[in-house]
Amino acid sequence: MFQNFDDLADPSCGAPHAALLRSELKRLKLDGFLVPRADAHQGEYVPPSDCRLQWLTGFSGSAGLAAVLGDEAAIFVDGRYTIQVREQVDMAVFPAQHLINEPVTAWLSKRLQKGQRLGVDAMLHTVNEVRKLKKVCEAAGAELVLLDQNPVDAVWEGRPAAPLGAVALHPLERAGRETADKIAEIQGILKDNKTDAGVLTQPDSIAWLFNIRGSDVDHTPLPLSFALVSADDKPTLFIDGRKLSNSVRDSLSELTGIMEPSAFKAELAALGDAGKTVLIDPALAGEGIATAITRAGGKILEASDPILLPKAVKNEVEIQGARDAHLRDAVAYVKFLHWFDETAPNGTLDEIGAAQKLEQFRVETGVLKDISFDTISGAGPNGAICHYRVSRSSNLKIPVGLPYLIDSGAQYEDGTTDITRTLAVGEMTAEMKRHFTLVLKGHIAISTARFPEGTSGAQLDTLARIDLWKAGLDFDHGTGHGVGSYLGVHEGPQRIAKTGSTPLKPGMILSNEPGYYPAGKYGIRLENLELVREAENIEGGERPMLGFETLTLAPFDLRLVDGDLLSRAERSWLNLYHKRVRDSVGPLLDNKTLAWLESATRPI
Predict the structure, then answer these.
(1) Ordered structural domains, the chain, with CATH
(2) Which residue, among 599, 603, 553, 594, has the nearest Cα to 574 in the 3D structure?
(3) How far apart are CA 168 and CA 185, in angstroms?
(4) Residue among 486, 478, 378 nearest 423 (CA)
(5) Are the C-beta atoms of residues 212 and 248 closer than 8 Å to each other?
(6) Alpha carbon distances (Å) from 493 to 125, 129, 188, 480, 504
(7) Is 97 helix (H, G, I), strand (E, B) or coil?
(8) Predicted confidence (pLDDT) per residue in 135-160, tens digit
(9) Which residue ranges of the chain lie beneath pLDDT 70?
(10) Which of 103, 213, 512, 584 is disulfide-compatible with 446, CB 3.0–4.6 A?
């Protein structure tokens, strides 16, 4: 199994670990310290050796931060984790705060005193974040202390070793572009920006540039590393040499220098000594990187990571790979849905059993590399926890009479998948059907959207919510995130959300996943992956339009659809989508599963 169900959270760790940290802060003459859920790469995917927030508080979510002062502390999470954090963290030690409604800067501004010293690990906070923290400290007459060593590490007994996952070459028949071609493109961007070099801190950017994949974190083929791209010379990859076989090292050495990560700061300082101008992304690069350059006399140009957009816009090889991966995944998924439909109504199936069975069907494809994230298998009230992770202690039997939510994905060498379905188990109430159908209407609105070039995800986000809003309902997460090509299941900069400012471009892949979560009852989320493509001409239209090609191929549960709430156009979309699922997936199924699929996708 690629997923384990061990209990990760331990609320009882909060008090003793906070005491250990405070003792170390006292030794360092610090009055407070911030512990983000981050590593030096500022990515979403963090190895166990860098899960300091979890060690300190017990919280295992993918985003958050703890503030520890001498006599007070708090943990800050966003709306995805408001339920989870209260289950995993001792609220008496780390009261929960909403990361958006009361960010840590606002919390600190009410508590910092003149003369106090607030410490941060300079590599774990971005340039932008440190800039905000400095303002708060200055306003309070306090000092922000940038640390090279993390005090958590000094008191973390049994801290796991840093990962040493093997690096593999990502072949041209999967990548679609030669490494040399990609390097030349990025060098051109650097020259256009009149910079001498660019710093890459995101492992997925580095994996894309050098056509490599790694195994340093769960479920995402990332090689934890840094890179410097020179505008006029070979780039340099900073990676632990133990991750590289001789053949991989030889192949990479033709195009890039290779150095140990311990040499990274010295190379940054050398750029500074030479008076070079270096591009860094202030939203992604740790403050320690900028400081190493400027302290040595270098100049910084703040701009977006130059890899983000080229990586997000998939080439035709990657696009075809995504289609192939989704069709393969659909066969496994439909087999799971058929099995679930026969098994769940007896009332003995639990959340772990369902997740294991789905993974088994994907393994049977023969080419599964990993799942793309821990499967969210939420029965009844657990489904209302947006990013619920089932463990042996939280595992519930899937009840008859409530919807069941399963959000999962797969990693294949030709593509990354992510799909959510909400399934009926037994008879559904009119309220459940109404909620499901309102979410479905939002999903269809995104799928059928037509929009001119330059349109951002923020402009589309309302389409997914408007029918929920009319009913006085909403969901507290974005409508869609970008997805990589055998890389991160969450990829920027593209997203469909209130904060999605990046214009959508043909070749981008995004999720389409509106939801609704009545707390303590059940959860509903419906997710397909969508490829941005040029749309057909609209009769009488004056501008070329973009639209979406749906990649995911799996039925929606018609037993939860209230057809009276769908317009004629929405009903037509659902019927045509289900016909496409039948036509694409049906020929690849055995007769019994095909008969089930034909019934599950019958026209309404």
Answers:
(1) 11-155 (3.40.350.10), 168-307 (3.40.350.10), 313-600 (3.90.230.10)
(2) 603
(3) 23
(4) 378
(5) yes
(6) 19, 18, 20, 11, 10
(7) strand
(8) 999 999 999 999 999 999 999 999 99
(9) none
(10) 512
Helix, strand and coil content of the chain, in percent to the nearest 5, comes to 40, 20, 40
Give the 3-state secondary structure of residue 228.
Answer: strand
Dig out the tokens for 558 from the structure: 């018609």
Q: Which two tokens stand for residue 145?
A: 């202390």
**Residue among 211, 215, 197 nearest 274 (CA):** 197
Q: What is the pLDDT of residues 96-111, one digit of tens each?
A: 998 888 899 999 999 9
Residue with tokens 């005090």: 151
State phi, psi for 435 to the nearest 5 degrees: -60, -45
* Rounded CA separation 103/188 (Å): 38
Q: How far apart are CA 175 and CA 324, in angstroms?
A: 14
Q: What are phi and psi of 331, to 5 degrees?
A: -60, -45
Sorted by sequence, the CB contacts under 8 Å of residue 341 that are 6+ apart come out as 423, 596, 600
Which DSSP helix (H) or strand (E) runs through 451?
strand 451-452
Task: Output the six-digit token pair for 567.
Answer: 């317009």
65: helix, strand or coil:
strand
Structure tokens given for 135: 């303002």
The angle, 0 to 180 degrees and rounded to 10, between the axes of the packed helices 430-447 and 568-585 is: 80
